[in-house]
Task: structure prediction
Amino acid sequence: MKFAERAHAKYAAEWDKMLSHPFITELGQSRLDDTIFDFWAMQDYIFVREAIRFFSVLMARFPRKYQKPFQQTLAGLEHELEIFHEYAKKRGIDLDNVQPTPICHAYNSFLLSSAYHEDVDANFVILYTAEKAYHEAWKKVRTGIKKGTPYESFIENWAGEEFRQYVDWLGSELDSMTEGYPESRLARLDEIFLLTVRYEYLFWEMAYNRLKWM
Ligand code: MP5
Result:
């Protein structure tokens, strides 16, 4: 069995729990409290801003064949920051003074530490898992939400066709790079998959419950 299929099968319960988080369900039914969405937007802005550092470290470590596709990803992240700025302007949110919550801080630290200390395959697992989680979450939101929502640009970005192709590409690269791996390495990569799913779950949980330091 290929890596992605195997990891999804092994952690199907955790994946489902993440995707059925009330944040996603209520957003998809157009009944999520605006201020909860704002809380998520402020934290995800920080997440994306810091993800640029994560990708930049990886760019230095990746084999040449990955540098070109990930230049597009970096450009995509800059575009995402613009989406956050436009949304913040409409809502009167000052993004310059947002502090990361413990969960946002921990997730970003995990990414940056992995970029420096884990091998390329492990970083591909993190990337694939985080991007796939967002793609599926926003597709779920898109199916039910009312037309003319103020969240359209976020939905288009992560549920759209371009992002789907990117996630599929990450999955197929990951599958081919892990082909024939010994069970010991696969088990380590499984752990990283699970850790990333857990962080994805906790990110929604943090926003939904407005979890801060104190
Ligand atoms: C993504 C994100 C998607 N923006 N935030 C979290 C918590 N997980 C995944 O990644 P990207 O790099 O913004 O497309």
Q: What stands out?
A: The pocket of MP5 is lined by residues 44, 47-48, 51, 77, 80, 130-131, 134, 200, 203 (CB under 6 Å). The chain has one domain: 3-209.
